[in-house]
Amino acid sequence: MAEKPVARMYGVVSGPSSKSGGGNGGDSSLEARVASLEDKFERIDAKLDVISRDVSGLIREVSYLKGRVDAMPSTLQMLAFVLAVLGIAGLAKYFAI
Q1: Which of 9, 20, 71, 74 is the most buried (most CB within 10 A)?
Q2: Whole-angstrom Cα distance, residue 73 to residue 13?
Q3: How far apart are CA 90 and CA 25, in angstroms?
Q4: What is the pTM of this model?
């Protein structure tokens, strides 16, 4: 069986070319690989905890911004305000002269 390049790169090979001596009880190699994987898992787990905190912070910020956007006046409200100001200005000019 030919080794796959990815399997060889990560030390996961099978058959006679295996580092365990052809499957005859290479527990020390297996234990070393498992210990390495456990160490990598702990680092990945720590990074995931940081990412999780960052994402929850982003969720809070986005919900705050959504509340602010929802509180903004709509286009119709802004148009009504501008027309009211123009109407008041026109009336003030009409009655001031």
Answers
A1: 20
A2: 64
A3: 97
A4: 0.44
